[in-house]
């Protein structure tokens, strides 16, 4: 059998994206090939994919695309949405072996907990957590503070405070005060 004949036919994308999600998820993506499922240990790679992988993975990928669209991932360069996290959680919860169990969040999945113990994630950058309005307020307040600190009268006041601290040894006075407080 030539390689081209064994390839899956492309999905009709115009039909898929013009229809609501509920319409195309079940009939197109969850359609399991008819017939007796082959022995997973003896079947060809193509049969294994068609019977065991695609009926589970393709609906997950469709759900991933809908969630990415809902999270507005296609509108900007950066986002807090992590596709692999969504797909992991979706596949874990849609596993037929877990059909009677309740929904489990990503960080409560046992193998995810084990992985994160050894491979902790870096924190999400503040730029991704803030809305545009919150970010603009922070930038504006920083800029106003900078402009105020550049004012000549404020500069004079800051120099006077620094000189006063040095002359009166304020840091040492504060240390002595706290030492007294701790001794009480």
From TrEMBL:
According to its UniProt record, what is one Pfam family this protein matches? IQ
InterPro entries listed in its UniProt record: IQ_motif_EF-hand-BS (IPR000048), IQCK (IPR043408)
Top-rank taxon of the source lineage equals Eukaryota
Protein's UniProt name: IQCK protein
Upper classification of the organism:
Eukaryota, Metazoa, Chordata, Craniata, Vertebrata
């Amino acid at each position: 059998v030539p390689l081209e004949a064994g390839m899956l036919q492309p999905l009709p994308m115009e039909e898929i994206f013009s229809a609501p999600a509920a319409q195309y998820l079940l009939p197109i993506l969850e359609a399991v090939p008819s017939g007796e499922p082959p022995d997973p240990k003896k079947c060809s790679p193509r049969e294994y994919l068609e019977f065991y992988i695609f009926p589970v993975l393709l609906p997950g990928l469709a759900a991933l695309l809908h969630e990415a669209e809902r999270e507005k991932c296609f509108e900007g360069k950066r986002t807090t949405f992590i596709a692999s996290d969504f797909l992991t959680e979706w596949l874990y919860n849609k596993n037929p072996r877990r059909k009677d169990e309740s929904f489990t969040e990503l960080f409560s999945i046992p193998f995810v907990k084990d992985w994160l113990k050894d491979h902790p994630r870096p924190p999400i950058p503040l730029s991704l957590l803030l809305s545009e309005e919150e970010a603009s307020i922070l930038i504006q307040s920083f800029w106003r503070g900078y402009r105020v600190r550049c004012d000549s009268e404020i500069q004079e006041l800051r120099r006077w405070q620094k000189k006063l601290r040095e002359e009166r040894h304020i840091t040492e006075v504060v240390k002595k005060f706290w030492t007294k407080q701790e001794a009480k």
